[in-house]
Automatic annotation (TrEMBL):
Function text: Component of ribonuclease P, a ribonucleoprotein complex that generates mature tRNA molecules by cleaving their 5'-ends.
Residues in coiled coil: none
Origin superkingdom: Eukaryota
SMART domains in the cross-refs: POP4
Protein name stated in the entry: Ribonuclease P protein subunit p29
Source species: Cephus cinctus (Wheat stem sawfly)
Alphabetically ordered keywords of this record: Nucleus, tRNA processing
Length: 227
């Protein structure tokens, strides 16, 4: 008995591999091999089994989709603690600094109303464009507009003039020429809004909605406001 250790992974010698060969007709060789190996009951099904095709697409590995990370935004509580969007009477805002905001607002209104000059706006309810312009005015954003309170149920509010620096659901925050910020309730005022050489009058109670909600709201312009 040979006691020497043999490595099973060593290649076969050339005198053996030289004699090895494959069948030229592999299909016939495979059929002959199966017929000699399988039992008689399975020989009839050999041809049908060889015709089958196997779809490896059904066994694809599932790809793990990595969801994009959502950006973290400040919560409402954190915004309140940081004082974001909070304007107080002690805010260091000056009327002169808000004048460019008014110019930007005038350009915005020209684009929104689709006019080059505000003098072209209709001044009579009979005008065919009256309802369309009224709807656009009520849906507009008034940050930067110069207004004057012309009528009010509260007499102390009449005559207040300034640039709107904050528009909330029920109030306007107005910065006057004396650099004082005043809060005006919309519900009880009628105000004049200045658009270059044109002055328009709006009822505050028609604007008692947040600007974002007001932009998609349908207004009834035929209703007469009560003040």
């Amino acid at each position: 008995m040979d006691t020497k250790a043999h490595n099973v992974c060593t290649p076969l010698p050339f005198k053996i591999t030289n004699k090895a060969c494959t069948s030229e007709n592999r299909e016939k060789y495979l059929l002959k091999f199966l017929e000699q190996t399988l039992p008689q009951s399975d020989i009839k099904a050999i041809s049908d089994e060889l015709k089958r095709t196997f779809l490896f697409d059904k066994h694809r590995t599932k790809r793990i989709r990595h969801k994009p990370k959502k950006r973290k935004f400040l919560t409402t509580r954190k915004r309140i603690l940081l004082g974001i969007n909070k304007i107080t009477r002690n805010s260091a805002l000056k009327y002169v600094d808000m004048v460019p905001l008014n110019k930007m607002w005038l350009d915005y209104m020209k684009h929104m109303l689709d006019v080059k000059n505000f003098a072209a706006l209709p001044d009579n309810p009979i005008d065919v464009h009256w309802d369309n312009v009224s709807q656009k005015l009520l849906k507009a954003d008034f940050h930067g507009a110069i207004i004057t309170i012309s009528r009010s149920k509260c007499p102390s509010l009449v005559g207040i003039t300034g640039i709107i620096i904050q528009d909330t659901k029920g109030t306007f925050r107005v910065l006057g020429k004396d650099n004082i910020i005043r809060t005006i309730p919309k519900e009880v005022v009628v105000f004049d809004i200045y658009m270059e050489s044109t002055t328009l009058q709006l009822f505050g109670r028609e604007l008692c909605t947040r600007p974002a909600e007001r932009s998609v709201k349908k207004f009834k312009t035929t209703r007469i406001a009560d003040l």
